[in-house]
Specification:
Elements lengths: L1 E3 L2 E3 L5 E2 H8 L7 E4 L2 E3 L8 E2 L4 E5 L6
Parallel strand pairs: 1-7
Antiparallel strand pairs: 1-2, 3-6, 4-5, 4-7
Length: 65
């Protein structure tokens, strides 16, 4: 199991950050993501693997005027 924004989520082998985003329904291109407290750059989302027990925070910035 992993924790995404404080909620438990099933984990599977060979899971990447992009898999988590897809399962959670995030489509906005400019998300702020941290894995176990460390910021993950947009360039590394598809190559960063998720391990069992990891904590992921996903922040969707809101812009207004």
């Amino acid at each position: 199991m992993i924790k995404v924004n404080g909620r438990m989520m099933d984990w599977h082998k060979d899971m990447y950050v992009t898999d988590v985003l897809k399962v959670c329904g995030y489509t906005y291109p400019d998300l702020i993501i941290s894995l176990n407290g460390k910021h993950i750059s947009k360039d590394f989302l598809s190559s960063t693997t998720i391990s069992d027990g990891d904590r992921i925070s996903i922040i969707h910035p809101i812009v207004g005027g």
